[in-house]
Amino acid sequence: MAQKDLKSRIGSVKNIQKITRAMEMVAAARLRRAEQRIEHLRPYAGAIRRMTRQAAAAAENIPSLPILLEHDEVKRVGLLFVTGDRGLAGAFNSQILRAGLRAANEHEAAGRTTVPYASGRRGVSSLTFRGLEMGGSYVGFTDRPAYANAREIAEDLMAAYVDGELDEVEIFYNGYISPLTQEVRRETLLPLQHATILEADEESEEDTGHHALVEYEPDPEQILHRLIPDYVEISLFRALLESTASEHGARMTAMRNASDNAGELIEGLTLQMNRARQAEITQEIMEVVAGAEALG
Fold this sequence. Notes:
By secondary structure, the chain is of the alpha/beta class. The protein has 2 domains: 3-24 and 253-295, ATP synthase, gamma subunit, helix hairpin domain (Helix Hairpins); 31-247, Pyruvate Kinase, Chain: A, domain 1 (3-Layer(aba) Sandwich), CATH 3.40.1380. Helices cover 60% and strands 13% of the residues. It has helices spanning 3-58, 92-109, 121-129, 147-162, 205-208, 220-295; strands spanning 76-82, 113-119, 136-138, 168-178, 181-190. The radius of gyration is 28 Å and the shape is elongated. The two termini are 36 Å apart. 32% of the residues are buried.
């Protein structure tokens, strides 16, 4: 490759490296904010879970609440894929799609029908491209999800469950562990008797050994009417926040790796260009020497 071409390619790679470094810095800043939002949510999520458990234990007429009724047979399962609106985040989106589609195959092998739901443009476009009929799609908020976004998704899923359109709901999202580590989580959202999505948020009263005496006004059944939608919404909001933090962490890592790879490529191209320049100089010297000998 000619020196001019090598120099042009080095310049192009340097420009790309500037972009990836900038994207890494932006992702790092957004990650810090996402981590703070998760920390602020945990006490509220734990309180909702605790109150819901207590009210359910005290209620005598739980079957009157449709959202708490377990269906006799699980025939239709809703699968919620929590992905991002953008790419350039390594395997962040693809691993959610793989896990969800694998679960769909498992359900269908057991004779159950699956209905896909997706948040994030990447998930929606991938599932639509596969020709799957979506139960619901939600886009445009994955960089900074609001509670209203979780409420919209929760209302659709609860309505489908109460109306008998779904017998079970599972959610797939990237759980945030650290900027370098995210894990795919498969959680049960509905029916609530089998919900697992907030189990790790707090210790139950049985675990701590403390049992509070609670008097309810109005009665526990009415309180549950109000608490249960909040419980489902906060569960989804927690998953959205975890996914957002995971996405920023994955993008930060991917852009850092891209910048490092660009640096290695620049070093290799620079070495190649220096060798080409040295070979050219050597050739010119040899030509001068040969010309001098010919004259002599």
